[in-house]
Structures are given as structure tokens and as C-alpha cells.
Amino acid sequence: MPAPGSCRTEVMAEGRETALGDGDVTPRGAPRTAGQHGEALMAELSELVQKVVKSSSWWERHGVDISILACSFLLLPAGFLCLRSAQAVPFLVGVLALGVGHHTLTVKGSHLASHNALTQSKSWGKAWAVFFIELCSAFTAEQATYNHVKMHHGYTNVIGLGDSSTWKVPFLNRYVYMFLAPVAVPVLTPLVALGLLREVEWKAALRTLCCMFLGLYCHYWLLLHVSGFQSPWSALLCMLLTRSLLAHPYIHVNIFQHIGLPMFAPDQKPKRIHLMSLGVLNLPRNALLDWSFGHSLISCHVEHHLFPSLSDNMCLKIKPIVSQYLKQKKLPYNEDTYGSRLWLFLQRYEELMVHAPPITELVGIQ
Q: Which of 169, 186, 303, 331 has the most C-beta neighbours closer than 10 Å?
């Protein structure tokens, strides 16, 4: 079933191969062997990918992405110093440096840390998750990991579980949501995190509160004492500006790559390879977004959902293998441009972001 709109989807033109859910049969009594076929396809693809991973060096598996994060962190002092200038060009360079650096640490860093893709050590992975998600992003690591890794990845596009409904704000019209609301992301993120702290242990909640306060206060203090802002309000306004610099593509990417694609009922979830190939979409490569968000959130999102523990660089490396395999097996490999998806959501905002999405029937999926 191809995605709606102008999305370019590779689908089977001939044959009637059926994608089954996790149960033995579909509601219409499809044969049991179809589900086993889906598992065999995933196993075969996993074997191909594992060969690439095992032949890759540490630098390819972790080093490239760690270096990008380190460079972004080292870029921050230059950004704070540039903000001291009274001239427009250096000041704007400072805003750009802080904005790109902030989003690289909070989006790319938090995303990789939530999947433990920065290191093979679980203890270090936990430490990186706390640093990137709580200290840098002002969110709670436990809830971020649960909602993203356990729910969104485990039940991608399954209604009520991993259907990206948390990104929907039905009472906002299309233009407010797409172009104005993203500016409020830096303010809403810690507020949402505070509400979620009731669902974690008190020790984790206390740690999160300390990390959130430390991260936000350090940003504020540096603007006052290093960048030379004269008033608290001007420093807070600069914080909002830099922390929301890439908030628009951040919101857009999160909805473009899942909403509008096939959705499934919880009792009709297809096998993993069908679920991910049908419900995930890749955007074209973009230098700024690849650096700030990572390949796994932009041009390798299909690969990331199939193999979420791989780093951004490894997702980029296995991309030719995954795309070729899915196309050879006549499975969807969804790709579309940023502009095309933006136009689609503006045209069909009510259908995609306000009303309940239609459930895809499993029988007949090519």
C-alpha cells in the first residue's frame, strides 16, 4: 500500500504476497506461512547487515558520530564569545553556532544515547543518556527512552501505541502548528518533562530535576557572564532563540516520516520488516540536518527503524544494502522530499493531524 500524496514508494506490481500480523492468522484467515515468511526476510536482511557491522571499524561504528558531538560541544564557547559583539554579523554567527550546537547535542546526541548507539557499554550508555537527554535537553531520560524506544520503535504506526499521536495538537490550525508553534518547543519540553516525573522513581525524578536546572541555569549564566547580556530578559530571549533555531524542521521531520503512511490496529500488527517498510519514510540528505539531527532521523530513517541500535554513520553505510534488499523483495521503500511532505501536510492537515487515521487492512498489502 503506497503512502498518500506524491510519496515515491516501491511496491510490488505483481503477485499477492500477504503481510500478516503477529498472530497466526489475519481476520480474513490468511495462511500461517506468510508470517513465517516475514520473519525469514527479516532474518536474511539482518544477516546481511551484521556482516557489514562486523567488518566495520570502531571509528565507523561509533567514532564518526562521537566526533561530530565533540565538535559541536567545542563550538559552544565560540558561540558565546561571538554574542559579545555589538556588530550584526558576529552576533548572528554566535546565534547560529549556539543553535546548531544545541540541536546537535539535544537531538542527535539524545537520540543516539536513547538507543545506546554511542557505546557498547550499558553503564556508559546510561550516563550518556542522562547527559544528553536531561542535562542538555531538559527532559527525563527514563520517559524519553520508554516512549521512543519501547513504544514508538516497538509499535511503529500501530494505533494508540506508536502512531506518533503525541505530535498532534488538533486545536491548532495548520499554519500555527507548522510555522508558529515550534518556537514554543524549548518552553514546552521542560514543562512536559515535569509532568512525566510523576511516573518515575523519586531518585530518578530528583536526578532529572537537578540535571534540568543545571543545564538551563548554565546556559543562562554563560549568556550573562560570558556573552555580556545586560538584562535577564535579553538573556532568556536569546536562550529561546538559540534553542528554537531548528525547532521547525525538528517538528516537521517527526511528523513527515510516519504520519500519512499506513496505520495498523494493535491486533493486526504486521511482522517487523513489513511494519517498518510500510510505516517509515526517508527524506533526502541535507548537510545541516544530517549534522544536527543525524542520518538516522533524515535520510536513513527506514534503516534506523529496522536496526535501531546502529549509529547514524552505520545507518548511512547499510543504506544501499537495505534499500536494494527491500526493492528486490518487492517491499516498500518510502522516500520523499521535504518540500513535498510539507505541501502534503498543508493540503491534508485536517485528515492527517486532526482526524483519526484510517486503519490499513493487512490482506492485500503488496
A: 303
Asked if residue 8 has pLDDT above 80, the reply is no
The model's pLDDT over 225-256, given as tens digits with 9 standing for 90+, comes to 999 999 999 999 999 999 999 999 999 999 99
Query: Scanning the structure block, which residue is given the C-alpha cell 500480523?
Result: 21
Contact by Cβ (8 Å): 80, 94: yes
Which helix (H) or strand (E) element contains residue 282? strand 281-282
Mean pLDDT over each residue of the chain, to the nearest integer: 90
What number of residues does the chain have? 366
Q: Which residue has the cell 527524506?
A: 283
**CA-angle at 298, arms to 267 and 352, nearest 5°:** 50
Q: What global pTM score does this model have?
A: 0.89
DSSP 3-state assignment of 259?
A: strand
User: What does each C-alpha distance from 360 to 19, 159, 182, 365 come to in angstroms?
Assistant: 11, 10, 30, 9
List C-alpha distances in Å: 14 to 158, 170, 364: 27, 39, 12
> The C-alpha cell of 301 is what?
530513517
